Amino acid sequence: MEKEDWPALVHYLEYEVFTKGRYSARLVRLLATSYLVLSDTEGVINLENKTAIAKPALLEANVLVFGAGRILGKDFSGAARFFEARKYTAKPALKEWVSWFMGFSFLLDYRLQGAADEFSFLARESKNAVVTALSSYFLSETLSRVLPEREKELMEISSIGKNRALIALPDFESWRREISKISTEIHIVIISKYIDATGVWLY
Fold first, then answer.
1. pLDDT, tens digit, for every residue of 146-196?
2. DSSP string, 40-90
3. Model confidence over 37-96: pLDDT tens digits?
4. What CA–CA distance (Å, rounded) separates 74 from 177?
5. Within 13 A of 167's CA, how many CA atoms are on the CB side?
6. How far is CA 43 from CA 85, 119, 181, in A?
7. Is 152 exposed, middle or buried (0-12, 13-18, 19+ CB in 10 A)?
8. What separation, in Å, do the N-terminal and C-terminal C-alpha atoms of the chain show?
9. pTM, entire model
10. Of 2-16, 105-119, 146-160, 173-187, which gets the smallest average pLDDT?
């Protein structure tokens, strides 16, 4: 890892996980992340399928990583189904991010009404300020424009969400600190440009 020789790391991890059957939390997450760094989405899906059989609890623990693989592979409808199936079963710490990525997958799959409904709920109800802000940003800057019949409604909800996010993170420095806490997570890396845009929009 220190040399950032990702192909060599993947080769080693595949031997440990697939050949030796060491489906540990650390190795599975590291292998999935390494595949994503290399844009090897087929590798992610293969690992997901084998993990689901060998140790299904690890699939649920890494739901955001495996779902991100589908997004990077541009299988947006598959990503939407993947997150939708886990919306209510995800661990509490991951649940709001699973819901957000479901909405994001809907948006990428051009299921605009579904995306608007999911982001609207999160803008009003999410306890995670970053999720709230991202949801509000997409309502204001994307969905209100492509759903003109809902523009007024979505802009109002976006404003509510923006205010909620600003109460939790009142200035750009607090936003930057919050993002730095999660910036190394692979599911955050793949949406980093939207996080940056949300920060500009908020402040």
1. 999 999 999 999 999 999 999 999 999 999 999 999 998 989 999 999 999
2. -HHHHHHHHHHHHHH-HHHHHHTHHHHHHHHHHTT-HHHHHHHHHHHTTTS
3. 898 999 999 999 999 999 999 998 999 999 999 999 999 999 999 999 999 888 888 999
4. 30
5. 9
6. 21, 30, 28
7. exposed
8. 36
9. 0.92
10. 2-16
**Rounded-to-integer distance, Cα 52 and Cα 30, Å:** 16
Name, in order, each residue with C-beta under 8 angstroms of 122's C-beta and a sequence gap of 6 or more. Answer: 96, 99, 100, 103, 131, 132, 135, 161
Query: Which residue, among 160, 177, 78, has the nearest Cα to 121 in the 3D structure?
Result: 160
Give the SS3 label for residue 26.
Answer: helix
Contact between 44 and 35 (Cβ < 8 Å): yes
Spatial separation of the C-alpha atoms in residues 128 and 191, rounded to whole Å: 16
Q: Tokens for 150, please give them.
A: 């809902």
User: Which residues contact residue 74 at a Cβ distance below 8 angstroms, ignoring those fewer than 6 apart?
Assistant: none
Q: How far apart are CA 144 and CA 123, in angstroms?
A: 14
**Whole-angstrom distance, CA of residue 16 vs CA of residue 39:** 21
